[in-house]
Design brief:
By secondary structure, this protein is α/β, with parallel strands linked by helices. The protein is built from 6 helices and 9 strands; from the N terminus they run βαβαβαβααβαββββ. β6 (about 125) and β7 form a beta hairpin. The radius of gyration is 16 Å and the shape is globular.
């Protein structure tokens, strides 16, 4: 599995190498977005720390980068309530895990989001240039996507 991760701590670097992942570490945030945009790279998922890179979900979606995204959240941040957690999901994170992570759980969650997103195109409806994903309540046309409220679905 090819994974791009924003600069992370040494513990997570060890988890990604031990788990048999082919992980590429971006040197900075702008470098990560550039790598994701290049057609010569095929990353199956992206991992970022919400403390250091809180805007990754918004920026990825704004750039039309639809890679599965696993955000890591510090334990102290998680204890602060569900507001930050919900914000990350609303902004486009596919999964959020509290630090510290355990290798088996991290790899299992990463594989699960890759599976879910891989089946996403099969769950879409296309018509005259429009593409609708009912489960995600997302509509795309002309390279732009919008989230549809439940009432509009």
């Amino acid at each position: 599995m090819q994974v791009l991760y924003f600069p992370l701590d040494s513990h997570l670097r060890l988890v990604t190498t031990m788990g048999g992942l082919s992980a590429t570490e971006a040197e900075c945030e702008d470098d990560a977005y550039s790598l994701l945009s290049l057609p010569c790279y095929h990353f199956e998922a992206v991992v970022a720390d919400s403390d250091t890179y809180p805007d990754v979900p918004k920026r990825m979606r704004a750039r039309k980068l639809h890679h599965p995204l696993l955000m890591l959240m510090s334990g102290r941040e998680r204890k602060g309530g569900t507001s930050k957690l919900c914000d990350l999901f609303h902004e486009g994170a596919d999964e959020v895990m509290a630090l510290p992570v355990y290798e088996r759980e991290f790899l299992a969650r990463l594989q699960a989001i890759v599976r879910r997103v891989a089946g996403r195109d099969e769950d879409s409806i296309s018509f005259h240039g429009f593409k609708l994903w009912p489960a995600e309540q997302e509509l795309e046309y002309g390279g732009k996507s919008v989230h549809l409220p439940s009432l509009e679905m």
